[in-house]
Amino acid sequence: MPQFADRVAKAQRSFIREILKVTADPSVISFAGGLPNPAAFPVPEIAAAAAKVLYEAGPSALQYSTTEGFLPLREWIAARYKKRMDMDVKPSDILITTGSQQALDLVAKVIVNAGDTVVMEKPGYLGAIQAFTIFRPAWRSVPLEDDGPDLDALDRALDGAKLFYAVTSFQNPSGLSYSEKKRAAVADLLRKHGTFFLEDDPYGELRFKGQALPPVFKQRREHSMLLGTFSKVAAPGFRLGWIVATGDIMERLVIAKQAADLHTGSLDQMIVHQFLADNDFEAHVARIRDLYGAQCKTMQAAIAEHFPANVRVTAPEGGMFLWVTLPEGVSATELLKRSVDCKVAFVPGAAFYVDGTGENTLRLNFSNADTESIREGIKRLGACIKACLADGPKACQGA
Amino acid sequence: MPQFADRVAKAQRSFIREILKVTADPSVISFAGGLPNPAAFPVPEIAAAAAKVLYEAGPSALQYSTTEGFLPLREWIAARYKKRMDMDVKPSDILITTGSQQALDLVAKVIVNAGDTVVMEKPGYLGAIQAFTIFRPAWRSVPLEDDGPDLDALDRALDGAKLFYAVTSFQNPSGLSYSEKKRAAVADLLRKHGTFFLEDDPYGELRFKGQALPPVFKQRREHSMLLGTFSKVAAPGFRLGWIVATGDIMERLVIAKQAADLHTGSLDQMIVHQFLADNDFEAHVARIRDLYGAQCKTMQAAIAEHFPANVRVTAPEGGMFLWVTLPEGVSATELLKRSVDCKVAFVPGAAFYVDGTGENTLRLNFSNADTESIREGIKRLGACIKACLADGPKACQGA
Description:
homodimer; alpha/beta; Aspartate Aminotransferase, domain 1; 8-stranded mixed β-sheet
């Protein structure tokens, strides 16, 4: 029997995607997925945009197109950075990708040799861990505090490292954001060490509290790449993301993209551009922000009511996730087995750690459940946690 | 300055894509691209399908979906293999990919360690060469004869090789097809050597002459993968392809696909499925076949009239390409420099060879030019070739 490549010999399916199969049962209240709320998808506007593009552009909307992406869409993205962040980005600095998951694959391909050190946040985004794992890095990870990474730990971790990957606003999975002060400090440390930097910003538009902050990328652009996506502000089914980068990095990313899928769907890019051109995007995003802000608040209130006091929970200012830390020694994987019996699901946190820790943590998604389900689900989960703790630490310890 | 990964340190942009930029000048008649004819794109039918999907499925057409792909589309593909080839394929044996270019990336990722031997056809498909090159194989190549590979050479090349990649019908770039006899012989050789086999079949539906033949995959399924695409029978702008595979191979491809882009566009998959469900696909494909058959015939007639007798040309029974072999010692790269001055373009063949040969060959695309352009372009190209030959071999030799 011929042998597979070493890079996938031990690869495993996404744990989250496997949990999602369990939660297909409609009686289970699921906080496990990372799905945007479909109630916020602009379906009639997308239908109008699709009709217009196919009527006006005709066959050219269905033909092969350039690897770099649809120019008017890249122009819109560049203008948006200027407007939101006063950040100068040229359309030619933007490469459209097939979702930002593809951006992770391309960056890993272009930067990471087997054995190179990649620095992750702790906890860190699972999709990035999976994309990088294929290219077999050596991992280091840096603990996240409430206002961003532990700077001393980051300084140590960056020493000799190839790449630092960070989700700086409303992080998946923790919901935490880097403060203005820590953004500046991270930029300084990246300059000090000369490390490649990959900043992922899928949720930046979804701030429902506090003051918008520009990405670290704005302060340290050399050797840096910034990712964005339309998945959370338009719809994820398009698979439309982008990379901001320049010079040699961009040149190599384009080459890798050509080899990976030639280009991202022409029609998808044109539909989303038409949707952006014909609608009030600010108003649309404000509706999503209000919705998620209300859902987050509902979940926080339910947690305050139903979770024991020794369970810690983050306080996100945006995004889609809350992060829960159970008392030391309690296993969220064991808790999940119980909670599925009580018809409520979440993602145990260990999968977000590259160092094998995090067993007493878990992720809760608040964007894709209605108010009633959030209240009822958190009530059930609170009861499960209490039962676990009441049974004594051994009952809910992992193997 | 931090260093890029070894796999892209020497990577280059697609030579064809660079040539395509030259041919943006509308006065240049281009046989360089590999584009399907947009006149054959079913634009109104796609518009109707898009409207229907968004109206009927609503938000679920825009949400994240499964990595494996949209089940009704996979069922359609499976049924099509049964109907066309009497081949049993289960929907679960089909993984939808973001164009078949992504399939090449995924297969390379899953199979090829740096230094593993990959066997290519000679000439071979450039997109595959690019996708595999990222994973740094050792190349071997096997000459193509009019009815398929040189079997003795293939037998030698497969010895100790990891993977054989082949386009068995109306190959890109040569237009050549494997005969029934050679298909059986190739299946035997693959069984003898136990090599992974990747059969790429983007053009199989586009046979305008002769008898349809089942893929080699039908005879040797173990360790084998078969690729297909909607790019040539619906439209390439969707980026919709697929891989047929089973067991452990499929399991690893799904894992690699999750890490590469989570899944292929939900809306694209649903639109194409709706188009297939609501229209007479046989009639649609027959129109494309007739169109390309007529264009091929026009090009062949013009070549017979205008090319010197010592230039050899293949006689394809389908697909989109003709392959030209100039007299030994004449460089197609040099010829291109002259022909661009005469406002006609093609792709020099050397890029399709992994062994540095093929300098006297070139590819002509006949699918994406109208009758008048084909006649005029071939006339111009014939004059260029004659001028080259008249100037003596030195004038058109490469450096």
